[in-house]
């Protein structure tokens, strides 16, 4: 374990013995990526995982610099990174546990879900059915609302994953012998409980927003369309930002929304490209297969790149909105 963060363990080799390109600069992230390749996740999920791992890589490399400078003495940021990594493993079914908390991998599958039971949550399903039958929404507005419901469902899933990792940490905590180690783990557990409380508050506020829209419809002054952007804007309005800061942030959120929409578009195109490639492969024309494989590979790379930039921008915006983010730049 002592060499876990050493240069030899974490700096990538130019290439593996089988000639495969090394994707990440941290060994454990390459192991996760290799496992994902073997699992044959859908193209959309693979691109999403790649973006999540790139964010994790950025955060861990930044943390290593802080650690060298002695700026993480209580291990709080290291614990947060470990938690984030465990959530990634659980999110993509690589934590060795069977995940009974279903989550749709992409919006294209929305049309295949049985009407009336779309969100794996009785409260959400009831609210969605009421909104659908209310006559208050145009077809475009219903699609926007559906994206918000799907986003809320994903947030519930993320909360459940955090709950699960917390339960496992508490089990380990019970077996601690060293008093000093016990104090450290107590601090980590306290931080996890704090994170869970904040996420539960966000979930409650998000559900209240969905309840209000479902009953009253969208207001004419709705600023944004994308759920992640709406969530950030709502959080900003609850924060201690000045009016000038809010105005500046609103403009930045409009730019961010364009990134989110571009990412959504590329995710959809990637899925369609994958379907076309599978069809071409079934026909057996080698030249045709090669051309479509090249197009698919290029699109997959572009989707990962856009996904990473979008998630990094979202991380920066979240830090800017939070009180901590106003005081100093978080990991």
From TrEMBL:
Biased composition (Basic and acidic residues): 1-11
GO biological process, one term: negative regulation of receptor internalization
Residue ranges of the region described as Disordered: 1-21
A GO MF label: lipase binding
Residue ranges of every copy of the Alpha-2-macroglobulin receptor-associated protein domain listed in the record: 2-99
Domain Alpha-2-macroglobulin RAP C-terminal, residue spans: 119-331
Pfam families: Alpha-2-MRAP_C, Alpha-2-MRAP_N
InterPro entries noted in UniProt: A2-macroglobuin_RAP, Alpha_2_MRAP_C, MG_RAP_rcpt_1, RAP_D2, RAP_D3, RAP_sf
GO CC, any one term: endosome
Name listed for the protein in its UniProt record: Low density lipoprotein receptor-related protein associated protein 1
Organism: Mugilogobius chulae
């Amino acid at each position: 374990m002592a060499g876990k963060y050493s240069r030899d363990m974490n700096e990538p080799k130019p290439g593996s013995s089988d000639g495969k390109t090394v994707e990440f600069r941290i060994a454990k992230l390459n192991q996760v990526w290799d496992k994902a390749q073997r699992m044959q996740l859908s193209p959309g999920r693979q691109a999403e995982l790649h973006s999540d791992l790139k964010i994790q890589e950025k955060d861990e490399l930044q943390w290593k610099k802080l650690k060298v400078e002695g700026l993480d003495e209580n291990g709080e940021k290291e614990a947060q990174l470990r938690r984030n990594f465990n959530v990634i493993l659980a999110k993509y079914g690589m934590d060795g546990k069977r995940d009974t908390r279903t989550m749709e991998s992409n919006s294209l599958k929305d049309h295949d879900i049985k009407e009336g039971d779309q969100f794996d949550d009785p409260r959400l399903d009831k609210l969605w059915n009421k909104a659908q039958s209310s006559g208050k929404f145009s077809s475009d507005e219903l699609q926007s609302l559906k994206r918000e419901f799907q986003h809320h469902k994903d947030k519930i899933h993320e909360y459940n994953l955090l709950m699960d990792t917390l339960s496992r940490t508490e089990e380990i905590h019970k077996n601690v012998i060293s008093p000093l180690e016990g104090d450290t783990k107590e601090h980590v557990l306290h931080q996890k409980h704090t994170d869970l409380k904040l996420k539960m508050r966000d979930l409650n506020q998000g559900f209240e927003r969905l309840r209000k829209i479902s009953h009253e419809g969208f207001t004419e002054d709705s600023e944004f369309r994308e759920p992640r952007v709406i969530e950030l804007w709502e959080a900003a309005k609850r924060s201690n930002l000045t009016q000038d800061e809010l105005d500046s942030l609103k403009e930045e959120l409009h730019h961010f929304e364009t990134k989110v929409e571009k990412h959504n578009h590329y995710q959809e195109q990637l899925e369609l490209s994958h379907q076309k490639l599978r069809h071409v492969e079934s026909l057996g024309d080698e030249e045709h297969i090669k051309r479509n494989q090249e197009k698919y590979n290029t699109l997959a790379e572009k989707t990962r790149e856009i996904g990473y930039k979008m998630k990094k921008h979202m991380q920066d915006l979240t830090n800017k909105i939070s009180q901590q983010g106003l005081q100093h730049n978080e990991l």
